[in-house]
Prior knowledge:
The structure holds two protein chains of two kinds.
Chain A: H1 4-25, H2 30-35, H3 37-47, E1 63-66, H4 72-81, H5 123-136, E2 143-148, H6 155-166, E3 172-178, H7 187-190, H8 196-202, E4 206-210, H9 216-228, E5 236-241, H10 264-272
Parallel strand pairs in A: 1-2, 2-3, 3-5, 4-5
Helix pairs in contact in A: 1-3, 1-4, 1-10, 3-4, 3-9, 5-6
Chain B: E1 9-11, H1 12-26, E2 30-34, H2 38-41, H3 44-49, E3 54-56, H4 61-72, E4 77-83, H5 84-87, H6 92-101, E5 107-111, H7 129-134, E6 140-142, H8 147-158, E7 164-167, E8 172-174, E9 189-192, E10 197-201, H9 205-218, E11 223-227, E12 230-232, H10 236-246, E13 249-256, H11 261-272, E14 277-282, H12 292-298, H13 303-315
Parallel strand pairs in B: 2-3, 2-4, 4-5, 5-7, 6-7, 10-11, 10-13, 13-14
Antiparallel strand pairs in B: 1-8, 6-12, 9-11
The complex binds thiamine diphosphate and magnesium ion.
Amino acid sequence: MPNIKELEDLTTQVRRDILRMVHKVNSGHPGGSLGCAEFFVSLYKEIMDRNDHFDMDGKGEDLFFLSNGHISPVYYSVLARSGYFSVDELNTFRLLDSRLQGHPTTHEGLPGIRIASGSLGQGMSVAIGAAQAKKLNNDNHLVYSLHGDGELQEGQNWEAIMYASAKKVDNLISTIDLNGQQIDGSTDDVLPMGSIKGKFEAFGWTVVDIEEGNNIEAVLKGMAEAKSLAGKGKPICVLLKTVMGNGIDFMMHTHAWHGKAPNDEQLAIGLAQNAETLGDY
Amino acid sequence: MKTYTYTDKKDTRSGFGAGLAELGRTNPNVVALCADLIGSLKMNEFIDENPERFFQIGIAEANMMGIAAGLTIGGKIPFTGTFANFSTGRVYDQIRQSIAYSGKNVKICASHAGLTLGEDGATHQILEDIGLMKMLPGMVVINPCDYNQTKAATIAIADYDGPVYLRFGRPSVPIFTPADQKFEIGKAIKFTEGSDVTIVATGHLVWEALEASKALHEAGISAEVINIHTIKPLDEEAILASIEKTGCIVTAEEHNHLGGLGESVARVLAQHRPTPQEFVATNDTFGESGTPAQLMDKYGLNSDAIQKAVKTVLKRK
Ligand SMILES: Cc1ncc(C[n+]2csc(CCOP(=O)(O)OP(=O)(O)O)c2C)c(N)n1
Ligand SMILES: [Mg+2]
């Protein structure tokens, strides 16, 4: 049984990391990062079967691909706190010569990263390829991916969604961060997408809903269910309902903090709402 | 020597926004499209004043290029807005077939070009876009140097019938060209007269070239600074006339040396008058995260780098 309190404490620490990283360089994307903190913590600490040692091929372990690369702060924080590199390195986020580039990249050889992302809409295709490689290798492990809801407006996703079911890529669990926000406003203001669930189902996927994407127990339960559905002939989509900016009251429920860093005062308020648990980097 | 100063700094993308807003008031056929980056492209004023002539496409740049091509059929003049990377590489075949080959009057307006977009890093910092766009038959390629020139260029391209790639940037940079300038596509502008070396620059590197020419002047080197805002069609006459006098040239751009302004100039020189040339450009590399000034320094794209290139090319005369 997972220790929920420990996972929650880690999530709080991850929120602090996110705020401090983007504040230091006055740039980066806190909103989507904060909304996905519980998801990343659950995935890396409980859901994925991971090897101790990172190598690019990732044979004999589950893989994760971040398609919405702008939420790199949450990714870097959880990778560091899962042992892929030192948490001190979070200090170098977005600085010249850092391995922690604005958007994740393989170019600097950061452990944990297997593909560059940032230009939206490309990650699902990559995840499908990696899942098919696992099948060719007789490797029973799973491939996970994460995508923004606004990101689904990119047509390449729908090519990938069509392909994955046609080719029965049933070792793939693609999660959509349903926060209802993107840069220019709510997804409904920018380009209403109707029923995303209905669309995935119509394209032949199995869909799992996680209504409380910022509740660790709900995320664990939903992801465990998704896992149990793997290997049954269909790709699996998790619709993860989250709150953008979760955990920092003035950042919640708005697109305003998609790509904006807090100032000194806002940082102090945000940190006060998330007391240190495991220790700041 | 003529010197240039500035009193104000602004981002060139705001020059685009101001030009687009003016077109909204003067040209009823101008329409605008954006792929979830209204604020970054400074399109708000146009949208507020002409909501019915604005199309929010969502994050779907390929679809945007196709819709823009379609809007021209019926006489509209579409201006698309997104980052330079997503305006070119992302949608190359859509531009190639539906816009360039089909001869459609679409204005592809691209912000955050080059390294000066800063901390977002290499995924967003395209240094290949001038090359991609100039290779398309019939495509005009423009990279203005400051707020005023970008505004003037935006207004001018509406009157030109054919596809245009307009490239501009994110950071605040000196404003040193006149507010009332008339922008002539394909016409170079000579900023300083000189006799020892020609410096041909585009975009953010024009101000750096002027700074370099000041320092060179103090060192007794007379540099002729030419602003090539239109990389295609290239003002070959202006370049050839200048090197006839100086006998050597430095090209400067915020772009890869492969495929950029420098290579266009080299082709002209090779054909008409082989001349020593040095390139101030990135050296076949991706960018990275950092502040704009740090990156321009690390990748050799500033006044210092231009001065160094001038000293090198002078030795080759
Ligand atoms: C191809 C592409 N087009 C545009 C952008 C600019 N951009 C970055 S994030 C974003 C909005 C993404 O919305 P969503 O996927 O919902 O992420 P969220 O804002 O919820 O974090 C946009 C338009 C991009 N990175 N890539
Ligand atoms: Mg979203």
